[in-house]
């Protein structure tokens, strides 16, 4: 009996590894994460097959339930890191949904893995809260509507995808943690009060080389402007234009990440604190008189 279970487990694990071979990671992460540290993993393959800690999941809400199941297990240390291994050609909107499915039940550091499986390279961001917690989305929404994680072979609606046109932490992240949680929990009054006390700005990623800032198209190669944005603001809201793939997002975000700075008032998190606003949430906050993007 034990031998049979062991063989089945090994075959299942080997199948997962074979599936991971189809993941081509982006290049250029400017952060490092020690892979020996305790962490969870999410793999999202080129064929849109998803695995949490090497177990195949078929429904989006299984991301949150899988995390809760793991959190119930006794551990010496709380798990404060999740690594995402996602194929660079996937639509970024799916990666965005993964982040917000995670945020329903967990806060900590997300590490978007890059440059191969054996390196420590990644992009790392602290997250708390989810745009999906206080909002219901229609089944007609091409990313946030479906309950099933459709693979490439199963999903037939690709033509509807829009184009470019279209646990408390034992570290000093208090105000960032609280603001992010309340921002996504739709605590608009609190968010407005905090925004009155902090310096903030926003930009929209439109390609790997360009972004919209103060209603003007700018180039990421303009490091003087990038530095001005990071040095002068406590908060930076970032929106990624619909239709862009994960690799485009990763290259653009790498430039922003590489120019964030250490600041005593920000604790272990770099300045500015980044909050990424999904397209599904922008209208909600705009309707509540918080205008972030021009």
Automatic annotation (TrEMBL):
Keywords: Signal
Keyword Signal: yes
Signal peptide segment: 1-18
Listed name of the protein: GLPGLI family protein
């Amino acid at each position: 009996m034990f031998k049979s279970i062991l063989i089945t487990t090994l075959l299942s694990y080997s199948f997962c590894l074979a599936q991971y071979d189809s993941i081509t990671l982006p290049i250029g992460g400017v952060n490092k994460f020690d892979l020996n540290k305790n962490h969870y993993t999410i793999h999202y393959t080129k064929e849109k097959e998803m695995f949490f800690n090497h177990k195949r999941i078929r429904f989006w809400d299984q991301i949150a339930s899988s995390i809760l199941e793991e959190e119930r297990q006794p551990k010496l240390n709380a798990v404060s890191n999740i690594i995402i291994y996602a194929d660079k050609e996937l639509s970024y909107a799916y990666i965005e949904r993964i982040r917000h499915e995670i945020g329903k039940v967990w806060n900590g550091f997300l590490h978007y893995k890059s440059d191969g499986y054996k390196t420590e390279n990644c992009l790392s961001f602290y997250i708390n809260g989810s745009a999906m917690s206080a909002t219901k989305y229609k089944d007609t929404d091409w990313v946030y509507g479906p309950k099933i994680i459709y693979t490439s072979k199963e999903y037939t609606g690709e033509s509807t995808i829009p184009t470019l046109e279209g646990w408390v932490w034992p570290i000093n992240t208090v105000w960032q943690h609280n603001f992010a949680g309340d921002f996504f929990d739709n605590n608009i009054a609190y968010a407005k009060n905090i925004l009155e006390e902090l310096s903030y700005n926003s930009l929209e990623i439109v390609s790997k080389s360009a972004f919209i800032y103060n209603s003007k198209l700018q180039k990421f190669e303009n490091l003087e402007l990038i530095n001005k944005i990071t040095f002068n603001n406590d908060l930076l809201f970032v929106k990624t234009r619909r239709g862009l793939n994960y690799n485009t997002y990763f290259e653009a975000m790498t430039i922003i990440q590489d120019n964030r700075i250490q600041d005593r008032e920000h604790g272990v998190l770099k300045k500015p604190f980044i909050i990424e606003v999904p397209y599904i949430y922008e209208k909600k906050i705009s309707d509540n008189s918080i205008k972030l993007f021009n």
